[in-house]
Q: What sequence folds into this?
């Protein structure tokens, strides 16, 4: 049975990755299990300079999920290369760095700084964080700025560039189109959904930033819908990485049947760090049961009109 996938010229041992910001840099999970079993680790967002993130409270639970407004706390790209990279460089799986900037130049600088870090096989541009005042979403919600950013980054790196899109737009396929036309190597759908909770005891919003990003099982149907829409428009012309609400292998398979060539497990890592491994095993058992030898035949399968239920 072949679970490996080759996307943008890189072969991943399986299509189950972990989502940015929900697995740190893999260092904590490494203490409890062999993280090389995961198809790829997408790091917490890395910016040019270190960031403290937002004031607490910056996490609140919701029915079937959580709201966060971490605000991209990270040690900056130099700190990443100095303190974190040496500890991950011998792990036998791929790392993808999630990149954040306030300007185009900052995105380019971060990617350039990582060019010689061999373990980093690709960049995932975060243009969709709803919790920061400058940068990120300013690109993700404006097609012209987004196209320009993707072109600039593509023109300054040898590594594949994935773009992580925001679900907080009217038509995600238009933002996907801009990325494809600007040379993006892959699309990652979706980042968190903008939301808010009011604390009735305090009579004010729960989060210090008032609003934050909703993640977890609550957003699975939104993410699956968006993966479906983008696949419907572009097919396999550009690989889609599905993320949003994946807790079980069935959730992952919904993304895959909708058109995702790989998936990322996010919030589930917080309450079950073994979730990505369970998803891998679940997909294997599913394929065995169905007599499917090659994972790639499952991608976009729900679009096929010739399959009878
Ligand atoms: C606490 C937290 C921090 C996150 N940090 C980042 C980040 O730094 N960069 C990014 O692109 N996405 C970030 N995300 C978004 C996730 O990678 C993912 O897109 C989102 O949570 C939806 O997937 P899920 O429902 O499986 O969690 C973060 C999510 C959470 C919950």
A:
């Amino acid at each position: 049975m072949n679970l490996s996938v080759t996307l943008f010229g890189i072969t991943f041992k399986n299509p189950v990755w972990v989502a940015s910001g929900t697995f740190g840099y893999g260092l904590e999970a490494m203490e409890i299990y062999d993280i090389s079993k995961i198809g790829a680790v997408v790091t917490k967002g890395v910016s040019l300079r270190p960031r403290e993130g937002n004031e607490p409270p910056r996490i609140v639970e919701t029915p079937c999920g959580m709201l966060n407004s971490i605000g991209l706390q990270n040690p900056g790209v130099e700190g990443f290369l100095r303190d974190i990279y040496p500890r991950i460089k011998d792990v036998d799986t791929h790392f993808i760095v999630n990149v954040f900037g306030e300007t185009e130049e900052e995105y380019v600088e971060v990617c350039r700084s990582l060019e010689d870090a061999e373990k980093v096989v690709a960049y995932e541009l975060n243009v969709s964080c709803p919790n920061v005042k400058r940068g990120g979403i300013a690109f993700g919600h404006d097609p012209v700025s987004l196209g320009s950013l993707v072109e600039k980054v593509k023109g300054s790196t040898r590594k594949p560039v994935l773009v992580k899109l925001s679900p907080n737009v009217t038509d995600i396929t238009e933002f996907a189109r801009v990325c494809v036309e600007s040379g993006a190597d892959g699309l990652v759908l979706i980042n968190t959904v903008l939301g808010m909770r009011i604390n009735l005891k305090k009579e004010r919003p729960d989060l210090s930033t008032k609003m934050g990003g909703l993640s977890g099982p609550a957003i699975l149907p939104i993410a699956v819908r968006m993966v479906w829409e983008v696949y419907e428009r572009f097919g396999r012309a550009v690989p889609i990485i599905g993320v949003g609400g994946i807790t079980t292998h069935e959730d992952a398979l919904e993304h895959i049947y909708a058109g995702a060539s790989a998936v990322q497990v996010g919030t589930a890592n917080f309450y079950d760090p073994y979730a990505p491994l369970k998803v891998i095993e679940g997909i294997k058992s599913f394929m065995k049961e169905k007599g499917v030898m090659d994972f790639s035949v499952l991608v976009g399968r729900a679009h096929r009109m010739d399959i009878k239920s």
